[in-house]
Design goal:
2 copies of one chain form a homodimer.
Chain A lengths: L6 H14 L1 H7 L5 E4 L25 E4 L1 H11 L23 E5 L4 E11 L9 H20 L6 E8 L7 H10 L6 E6 L7 E7 L4 H13 L5 E4 L8 H5 L4 E6 L4 H4 L12 H20 L7
Parallel strand pairs in A: 1-2, 4-5, 4-6, 6-9, 7-8
Antiparallel strand pairs in A: 3-5, 7-9
Chain lengths: 303, 303
Amino acid sequence: MLAATGHGLEAYGGSVAYRGVGPIAGAAAGAVAVLVRSVGGADFRLPHTGETEYATGVMKIPAAAVTAEDAELLKALTSEGPVTMRLILTPQRLPDAESYNVIADWKGTEHPEQVVVVSGHLDSWDLGTGAIDDGAGVVVSMQALQLLKELGIHPRRTVRMIAWMSEEEGSEGARAYMKEHGAEMGNHVGAIESDLGADHPTGIYFAGKPGLGQWLRPLAEVLGANGAGQLVATPETGEDIGGMTRQGVPSFAPVQDSRFYFNYHHTAADTFDKVDRKHLNENAAIMAVLAYALADSTEPAGR
Amino acid sequence: MLAATGHGLEAYGGSVAYRGVGPIAGAAAGAVAVLVRSVGGADFRLPHTGETEYATGVMKIPAAAVTAEDAELLKALTSEGPVTMRLILTPQRLPDAESYNVIADWKGTEHPEQVVVVSGHLDSWDLGTGAIDDGAGVVVSMQALQLLKELGIHPRRTVRMIAWMSEEEGSEGARAYMKEHGAEMGNHVGAIESDLGADHPTGIYFAGKPGLGQWLRPLAEVLGANGAGQLVATPETGEDIGGMTRQGVPSFAPVQDSRFYFNYHHTAADTFDKVDRKHLNENAAIMAVLAYALADSTEPAGR
């Protein structure tokens, strides 16, 4: 998940902290458990879940998600007097198991050692099927590469498609990548991640040096003709490419309409029917154009 | 539930038959069980349930609701080959138990024996709390009577508030009422039921003799000034007042915006937060105006 600006993003960014550090703050205040109101926008009695955090030295108390409706009911009941609840929570933390990032390189014609990453993440939160978080991002990345191939555009630099593993648990796959490829960051000329669903895109989020917006200007003009010319500077473009961003690699993400994303993401309703093929193709087009510019321009994006 | 025209109503009316007679049609075709796709409009992985029917002489096979998303998944899987499912269904049919309609009379000043019914139903389908189906209808009926009292308008005829019991199982409460009061139908000058949620109303559904629309015309003019002047003839105004309608009693219901009703009704998401106080008051105003006209006009509505 991004922590940038935008319609739904802003609301989510402002409220997700209550879920994240809820168990820590609750324990510190003497709570025996915490119930976190759904952070999403849906009013369909849908528990909205996600990462909750514990801290060293603070008691690990049980934490659970309750729907917006049930949170309202609890509020009404507690306003009338003490409420006793019996919680039956079934989740368990299993030991880590081996899993993999999936990586495909299309070698560059001139500078195969220089890399542009197009990516989404392979894992998903467990209630739904992860169609929009982030199956869509993986498909968009595959499609961006496929588009360039179909168009017969073979760029000078390598385009690397990465389907990240284990983003939801704290970007474990990205961490492993940085461990293995950290020394090659100087050759990573750009990284793109799509992890904000599969809705209509209007432009590009970017993170990097001040000159980066200037470098993107001609691209925005091309994309603007199709209504996707928005350029939005942000500190974070994507969880999995955050490590590269911090190493100075220019990073990017499609700006998507996020009004509805948080109604579905991390709920049982994140299913394939939520993906609109037209919007998916629009996102792939943006990623392909951006990947091509990064991989083929004589002057790489400033870092 | 109404079986009349309208936005969501039309869609529901056209598809609910698959749920209702699904078990009969399935058994007749040799099925061992039926799974019925949610008839509602929500795409939030929400099972939408309701009455399913069995017929004499046709085997009673298990029937269950599946969400729209899971129905799509089953469709995709079955298109690839045979699918085996193991169903664990827990519902059971318990013996009937005693329960009651709740009835309050405000006696008329001149013709206390003549009755105008204002009503909603007290029971609800079991997944949610029944706030919009039909807690709202009960509250609107109580409020209509209350409004007349507050305004100091004491009509010539009796206004009878009825909270019907057991509408969802087949209008058992209404059936009991007709058994007890069937002989008094000549003195029932009109019956209103609100059972289409708690959304913005735009007028009045009516069922009766051809002249009834004409009789309503002055009322529609008054309500029209507030945007609720629509008059819609329909064969059925409400399940619980259907018996009265068939006995020739002019019957009515507020015309409500039904675009969203079927996203929530008969699901776990039919909860109090779905009720908008302003819309609730609008419905109460329509019912109060209509009840007053029926209970106080020198010339009663034609029958």
